[in-house]
Amino acid sequence: MRGSREGGGATGGDAGLGRANGRAFESGETPSRRPTGTLGPTLYYARTRRACMNEKRLVVACFGVLVAAALAFLAYRFIAPLTVSVFLYYSTRRYHKSLKRLHLPSRARAAIVLASLAVPLVLLIGYAVVLLVVDARSFIMEYALLDVAAARLPWFEGIGTLPPLTIDGLYTAYQSGQLSPFITFATDHAAFLTGLLSELFLDLFVIIIVTYYLLIDGGRLREWLLRFDDDAIVRDYLEATDVELEAVLFGNLLNVIAVALIAIASFTLYNFVAPEAVEVPYPALAGALTGLASLVPVVGMKLVYLPLAAITAIPVALTGRTDLLVYVVGFLVVAVVVVDTIPDIVLRPILSGENTHVGLLMLAYTLGPVVLGFYGLFLAPILLVVGLTFADTALPRLLGVDPIDADDDSLSDSQRRLDDF
């Protein structure tokens, strides 16, 4: 009887092993032989299942690393347009939200925001290019620079004069072969010019698309990032960074607009007072460029109004009318005090964010282009805000420091006074 019971027990164990192997086949696992030693069947198969799950997780993790590496490579390739997109997103997000009062859908509001940026910028660039071309043509014709260029550059030979900048003038010059040297130059350098224009339009396309969808789906991206928050450190850090980036970058956009309006008004009023010989050329364009240059603190605006003062003063000094230099000095005083100093003292501290130090922000805007290139003008302040917010919000908690905030909302009003405890 004992032997039969033992045999039956063995048979039952084998049946349990068969059922476990069947479940292993159904779940995609590799069935194993009966465990040896004192390890029970349940514990053994649990460990086997855990090992298989770990292998699957390792495969998924490796695939995720490969995808992340590919995305990082693409982001590095387009780091300049992506940086400008993030800059524009935070600069215009508050404007995008303010359009809700018009009861417009998010896509329509994003299109309005981009149009509000693109149309003035295109008009400003177009106006500047037209003025530059017209004045350059007048300067070349006045000082006979074509003869000097023909002596040094072979493809300028045969060009005696530049055609009028009209449709009829350009068409007549094309028919007469006067534009042939320019066409030949463009043909010889077609690959370089095509690559340059293609890269420019590709970057513009990336900026428009990324900014547009950040305005529409920025909230979804934020919620996705917060899914990985375990103990509220990530949430607090992301929220603080988000608020500070919006305050800093939106404040800089307002600063650009304010400085541009102040500069246009100041230069226009100066031209009303000054004689024609010492007037500021194109005050509206000069004021708009001054506003854009204010993105670079300390030296930005000086790159505009100092050359303007030189352009105004040199012809007067060469003609011996030194008495008019008083007006040029007056222009410099207006530019330094009204356009440069007062906005820097009054506006920039107000519009530079809540926690970011103004001096560090100035260094970021100044040194960013020097170290990183053009896009450093936008990337450096973003990195500064991200780093300072991390040091202020997340780092103390990661180090085990839990500073007590005097304005902690977890305390009731009655607990803020010692006598009421």
Automatic annotation (TrEMBL):
A Pfam short name: AI-2E_transport
The question of whether Transmembrane helix is a record keyword is answered with yes
Membrane protein topology class: Multi-pass membrane protein
So which domain of life are we looking at? Answer: Archaea
* Alphabetized InterPro entries for the sequence: AI-2E-like
Q: Which residues cross the membrane?
A: 58-90, 110-134, 190-215, 253-273, 285-318, 324-346, 358-391
Q: What is its main location?
A: membrane
List UniProt keywords, sorted A-Z. Membrane, Transmembrane, Transmembrane helix
Q: Which GO terms describe its cellular component?
A: membrane
Localization (cell): Membrane
Compositional bias ranges of the Gly residues kind: 1-16
Family (UniProt): Belongs to the autoinducer-2 exporter (AI-2E) (TC 2.A.86) family.
**Listed name of the protein:** AI-2E family transporter
Q: Could you tell me which species this protein originates from?
A: Halarchaeum nitratireducens
Record lineage: Archaea, Methanobacteriati, Methanobacteriota, Stenosarchaea group, Halobacteria
